[in-house]
Design brief:
This protein is an alpha/beta fold. The chain folds into 2 domains: about 150 residues, Rossmann fold (3-Layer(aba) Sandwich); about 80 residues, no CATH class. It contains 8 helices and 10 strands. The strands form 2 sheets. A 6-stranded mixed sheet has the order 6-7-8-3-9-10, sandwiched between helices. A 4-stranded antiparallel sheet has the order 2-1-4-5, covered by helices on one side. A hairpin with a 2-residue loop joins strand 1 and strand 2. Helix 2 packs across helix 3. The protein is globular. The chain starts with a strand and ends in a 7-residue tail after the last helix. The mean pLDDT is about 95. The protein binds adenosine-5'-triphosphate (ATP). The site of adenosine-5'-triphosphate has 13 residues, from strand 1, strand 2 and helix 1.
């Protein structure tokens, strides 16, 4: 499979008031087109930092990051980001929030009818076609997240970058959105890099789980290939010995081999 994202020897050192903070060191990762990769690790290990490097929101101190063979030097529409706390503009309706993104990417090439169609298609895809006139404060957290995902998908990104997109949701809404995301990704064949804390979420969604060591100077400890056929069904998988095995592998990595001591 063709590599879409290449991270070569990436290092990230932050300058802080207390001096330099070495967040990531020697991170090497490739993500193929159409692959679903999750980043998992203890709090503060540098998952978001790595995602932000791929998004082009941060520049590495050393090393190089490529997307489709081009250096990632800034954010770009081919790498859409969905954050944990949906970043919808509160004064715009759901429709307008998505339209804004669509217009930014396709505004110069497409006419208004086409822009409207893309906006509506994306909202329908996430099951939000009924709420287009509502403003963010009028809909639930799960619905806001869906609109955020619609906005990202409507830009037809080459890569969908998600930073704990379901982290703030209750367990049932979370499960529902995970299932929807699986269906959407199957339909759109999107490449996804997603940060999560949730072992079950990682196993259910991923082709590969990237497990990160604890910081400072965190790096990739191990990568687990999840060879479970798709479509995946959470209820059937719960008793599948392969699922149980993958889950245990991640838990072993996080809690036996790389357990985190919380500061007293
Ligand atoms: N802009 C910054 N300036 C200084 N230090 C930073 C900055 N951003 C992140 N860090 C530090 O880098 C480390 C990694 O942070 P990061 O947010 O990437 O971790 P994370 O794994 O995503 O954490 P969490 O799971 O808690 O969200 C942390 O120690 C954090 O304090």
């Amino acid at each position: 499979m063709k590599n879409f994202i290449d991270v070569h020897a990436a290092e990230m050192v932050f300058s802080t008031k207390k001096g330099r903070f070495h967040a990531l060191q020697d991170v090497n990762l490739t993500v193929a087109k159409g692959e679903f990769v999750t980043l998992i690790g203890h709090s503060g290990c540098g998952k978001s930092t790595l995602l932000n490097l791929i998004a082009g929101l941060l520049m590495p101190t050393s090393g190089a990051l490529l997307c489709d063979n081009r250096e990632i030097a800034s954010p770009g529409p081919e790498r859409a980001v969905v954050f944990q706390n949906h970043s919808l503009l509160p004064w715009l309706t759901c429709y307008e929030n998505v339209y804004l993104g669509v217009e930014r990417v396709f505004g110069e090439r497409a006419n208004k009818t086409e822009l409207k169609r893309r906006t509506m298609d994306a909202l329908e895809l996430v099951g939000m076609g009924h709420a287009i006139a509502k403003r963010p404060q009028e809909i639930s957290g799960g619905m806001k997240q869906r609109v955020g995902i619609a906005r990202a998908l409507a830009m037809e990104p080459k890569v969908l970058l998600m930073d704990e997109p379901f982290g703030a949701l209750d367990a049932l809404t979370r499960a529902h959105l995970q299932d929807e995301l699986l269906k959407i990704v199957a339909r759109t064949q999107s490449t996804v890099v997603m940060v999560t804390h949730d072992v079950d979420e990682a196993v259910l969604l991923s082709d590969r789980i990237v497990m990160m060591t604890n910081g400072p100077a965190a790096t990739i400890g191990e990568i687990l290939n999840v060879e479970l056929e798709r479509p995946r069904n959470r209820v059937q998988l719960a008793e599948d010995p392969r699922y149980v095995h993958y889950r245990k592998e991640v838990l072993d990595f996080l809690y036996t081999r790389h357990g985190q001591k919380l500061a007293a």
